[in-house]
Design brief:
single chain; 94 residues; mainly alpha; globular
Length: 94
């Protein structure tokens, strides 16, 4: 499925909600990004921040599986959604 920016933002919000409810992984995200819980609330409206949430979750296959299973998403949906958000465009080196 190809994602529009709007549908990608919706998916990323689902993943952000999952992340915020994950007591083990949320502190890792906050520590690695320097974000605060207030930043999470503000970032929920920022497509670039939502892209960074997807980037973070995609760093570990186990996180991808857990997030996708929790939201009934295909495992490649995070990558596809990421491509529709700022900074996720496919780079062509030609």
């Amino acid at each position: 499925m190809g994602y529009t920016r709007e549908t990608a933002e919706t998916l990323a919000l689902q993943i952000l909600t999952w992340l915020a409810g994950n007591d083990e992984l949320l502190p890792v995200f906050l520590g690695s990004t320097g974000a605060s819980e207030d930043d999470l609330r503000a970032g929920a409206r920022d497509p670039a921040f939502l892209g960074s949430v997807l980037d973070f979750v995609m760093m570990d296959d186990a996180w991808v599986v857990a997030a996708c299973d929790a939201s009934a998403l295909a495992y490649d949906s995070l990558m596809q959604a990421r491509m529709a958000l700022p900074g996720g465009e496919q780079v062509n080196w030609t």
